[in-house]
Amino acid sequence: MRDNFLWGGATAANQCEGAWDRDGRGPSLVDMIPHGPNRLPIMLGQMDYRSLPQDSYFPAREAIGFYDHYQEDIALFAEMGFKAYRFSISWSRIFPTGEEKEPNEAGLAFYEKLIDQLLAHQIEPIVTICHFDLPLSLIERYGSWRSRHLIDCYLRYCETLFRRFKGKVRYWITFNEINMLLHLPFMGAGLLFEEGENPLQVKYQAAHHELVASSLATKLAHEIDSENQVGCMLAAGSVYPYSCKPEDVFEALQKDRESYFFTDIQVRGAYPSYAKKFFEKEGVELAMEVNDEAILRDYTVDFISLSYYNSRCVSTEAHEEGGGNVFASAKNPYLTYSQWGWPLDPLGFRTTLNALYDRYQKPLFVVENGLGVRDQLEEDGSIQDDDRIAYLESHIAAMLAAIEEDGVDILGYTAWGCIDLISATSGEMSKRYGFIHVDKDDTGQGSLKRSRKKSFDWYKDFLKKMSI
Fold first, then answer.
1. 312 φ, ψ to 5°?
2. Alpha-carbon distance 341 to 338, whole Å?
3. Rounded to 5 degrees, what are φ and ψ at 386?
4. What rounded mean pLDDT belongs to the chain?
5. Which of 258, 282, 368, 405 is flagged as catalytic?
6. Could you report the per-residue pLDDT of 287-319, keeping only the tens digit for each?
7. Is 368 a catalytic residue?
8. Alpha-carbon distance 198 to 194, whole Å?
9. What pLDDT score does 104 carry?
10. Which of 468, 243, 183, 234 is nearest to 355 (CA)?
11. From CA 438, how far away is CA 461, in angstroms rounded?
């Protein structure tokens, strides 16, 4: 293991900050994703947020009030012994419409205070530039990432961040879970589909623009500060064939490639041959400019960051479905399942880490891993979250085995939702991940009071042992 291995936790602006209309922040796509039955159709881009009922509840608008509580929360992270904190910046807090010539100083000042607070506690900031977060104006005016115009808007935003936080932030992630664009197009990339459109054409054209933007951002980051390290980010998880039937094995290969498509380009620098054949078959014709292939080739990322929650299982035949929410999966009879139907598979984590490192031979960074459960508040106010502790213990052990026994190079590990926040997929508060409990329910009621769970002390003790 690296001597400077970065242990810590992770959140995202759209799931924790709130303050959606304060200090000059403009509306963002996440502010338009409701709680309840309309959430999934909105995230899929199948329903227009402008047609939502007026009484819809939008949980991201207040979230857990991190905007006002960040000092208290960072002090708790420091108490646990964090060496790193991965968070995202809200694009519309810096450029309210995405097209301003000058950034919103109040937004920059907030993040500067946040970063300075982290550094004062010797916590390394890991910044995600775009985490399911996009100024709403860019969706309404240009159709989001289907338009090449967004590359320029994104690079103006990136340059502002790289210059303002030069010397304070070294680790940058260009897009969170970039492959989620294929599965939740509106949440992942602000895509709404019009009648008669070929959704595959729209999604892969948007993906191309994001991939070019990511490469140009990597170039820019290195030019502004040679110390900058820039990573891509993948929603990862090995795909198992349901059986050794050759058709199942090939189906698993194809599903893996669906996600590897993005990292193959961001790490290897070119569209893979299987993707080109897929485009031919599906009638996808990407609009590219003459220098795009050179840009992708010349400005690859420094590291690969990933989220891992569970593995998947696929078959060419019908089987009982398992969990995973976003990724369709057959139920794996060899695994147990969480309260939300997600398979629990620590060995799958080790397998995933090995597969990624074998494929790319670049450092990995685990920036999301955790278990969403319903916590039980005891009469004395304590939360005995043993299921969460067991999940994290087993998965961290699997990661350490990948490092120590398999030789996988990993930069760090930041547990997802180190403080309770809004679930990205379900919009619920009751699907809790944190070491820190936040008093708030699924309808938005609660005091936002913070309190330590049993896992808080467990992680604190664990990090203390790892620092010896």
1. -130, 165
2. 5
3. -65, -35
4. 96
5. 368
6. 999 999 999 999 999 999 999 999 999 998 876
7. yes
8. 9
9. 98
10. 234
11. 22
Domain 4-465 superfamily per CATH: Glycosidases (3.20.20.80)
Tokens 């680790």 correspond to 171
- Please state the φ and ψ torsions of residue 442, each to the nearest 5 degrees: -70, -20
Residue 301 tokens read as 């990322």
Global pTM?
0.97
Domain-wise residue ranges, the chain: 4-465
